[in-house]
Design a protein that fits this description.
Blueprint: H1 2-30, E1 42-56, E2 60-74, E3 77-90, E4 95-108, E5 111-124, E6 127-140, E7 143-149, E8 151-155, E9 164-170, E10 172-178, H2 179-182
Antiparallel strand pairs: 1-2, 1-9, 1-10, 2-3, 3-4, 4-5, 5-6, 6-7, 6-8, 7-9
């Protein structure tokens, strides 16, 4: 039960954030004298890129992701959210596997924060297991420094899987699409 309450607390800000952002963008488009196209303070862009990441508490876990992000810059703040499809491995503990991460980030004035939820399926020798890791951190929408608490959902218990993690990663865009430039 504690895990479900924890997941609810982590995902509620993400749900509220998306509703506020949508209403803000709709209100900008509905005002005739300040459409989003000609508004110099609003920039909405989508990007596909890579997301290198390193985690470190007991041993290093290295990951490289394909990352899709939606980034919104509004005057003194910036918002971002995205999805990463990653492959991680630990060279010392010898486990590896795919990881899926959903993240959301916000930066206002000088304070930045981010939330994410990762699901990993790790393999080690003949064992495997599904792990979840909610994460919270600081940074700007494209650079994340996060603390995570991971736990096993199903599968075998493996050695060397870190329950606590501190990770640093960055979304590096390769392909960009600027919504404001394409709008009529």
């Amino acid at each position: 039960m504690k895990r479900f309450v924890f997941l609810f607390v982590v995902f509620m800000p993400l749900i509220g954030y998306s509703q506020i952002e949508k209403r803000y963008l709709d209100s900008l488009d509905s005002v005739p004298h300040r459409p989003m196209v000609n508004n110099p303070v609003v920039n909405l862009r989508y990007s596909l890129g890579v997301f290198p990441e390193i985690q470190m508490i007991n041993s290093p876990v290295i990951g490289v992701s394909v990352s899709y992000a939606r980034l919104l810059d509004v005057e003194w703040s910036a918002f971002g959210r995205g999805v990463n499809l990653c492959f991680e491995f630990d060279p010392l503990e010898k486990f590896y596997g795919p990881k899926l991460t959903v993240w959301s980030a916000m930066f206002a004035l000088i304070v930045g924060g981010n939330l994410s939820m990762s699901a990993m399926y790790y393999f080690q020798d003949s064992r495997s297991g599904l792990y979840l890791r909610p994460e919270i951190g600081i940074g700007i929408p494209c650079i994340h420094l996060k603390y995570g608490y991971g736990f096993r959902v199903v599968g075998d218990e493996m050695t060397g899987i870190q329950r606590h993690s501190l990770s640093l990663g960055a979304h590096i865009p390769i392909f960009k699409y600027d919504k404001r430039a394409k709008k009529p």
